């Protein structure tokens, strides 16, 4: 089990891998498997770009991120991460939705929307979807939009 502060030291020692790169987003998507994941990734890029009005960039080797925000550890060390993003992984699509943790009301609304979404699972800040055709795309759009707005409120640009 990693203790408080230990994660930051490990990241500092190993170097932060999740940072913006100059890698080509389209080339990354075209290397994705299985084949349907490519179409789903393009569909998600269109949806994220519509909501964020940002250009997608690669963050590390496998995350497609839009926008960025800065945060600070208790020690004072500062980092940057994408405001919104996803990864078209082989087993599942991983969507990064950090904004709902800003307020209890936002968490409750996110839980309500999860109940309407369709087949999915969740982690702390991640939404996992096996296939886009198994979820309600309007609900997914609302989840992404809510999280984008909340991140912009918490971390003004």
Structural features, described:
The chain has one domain (12-154): Aspartate Aminotransferase, domain 1. The termini are far apart. The strands form 2 sheets. Strands 1-2-5-6-8-7 form a 6-stranded antiparallel β-sheet. It has a two-stranded antiparallel ribbon with strand order 3-4. The protein is globular and about 40 Å long. It contains 5 helices and 8 strands; from the N terminus they run H-H-H-E-E-E-E-E-E-H-E-E-H. It has 157 residues and is of the alpha+beta class.
Q: Portion of residues in helices?
A: 40-55%
Average predicted local confidence, pLDDT: 88
Number of strands: 8
Task: Could you tell me the CATH topology label.
Answer: Aspartate Aminotransferase, domain 1
Secondary-structure class: alpha+beta
CATH class: Alpha Beta
H and E order: HHHEEEEEEHEEH
Low-confidence stretches: 1-15
What integer value in Å does the Rg equal? 16 Å
- Give the overall shape, derived from the CA principal axes: globular
Largest sheet composition: 6 strands, antiparallel
CATH architecture: Alpha-Beta Complex
Q: N- to C-terminal separation?
A: 35 Å
Number of helices: 5
Strand neighbour order, sheet with most strands: 1-2-5-6-8-7
Strand content: 15-25%
């Amino acid at each position: 089990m990693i203790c408080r502060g230990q994660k930051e030291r490990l990241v500092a020692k190993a170097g932060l891998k999740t940072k913006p790169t100059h890698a080509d987003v389209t080339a990354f998507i075209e290397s994705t498997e299985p084949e349907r994941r490519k179409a789903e990734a393009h569909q998600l890029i269109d949806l994220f770009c519509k909501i964020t009005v940002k250009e997608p960039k690669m963050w590390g080797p496998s995350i497609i991120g839009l926008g960025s925000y800065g945060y600070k550890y208790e020690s004072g060390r500062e980092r940057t991460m994408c405001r919104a993003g996803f990864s078209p992984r082989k087993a599942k699509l991983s969507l990064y939705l950090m904004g709902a943790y800003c307020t209890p009301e936002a968490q409750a609304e996110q839980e309500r929307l999860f109940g309407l979404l369709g087949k999915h699972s969740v982690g702390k800040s991640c939404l996992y979807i096996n296939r886009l055709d198994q979820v309600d795309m309007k609900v997914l759009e609302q989840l992404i939009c809510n999280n984008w707005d909340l991140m912009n409120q918490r971390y003004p640009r």
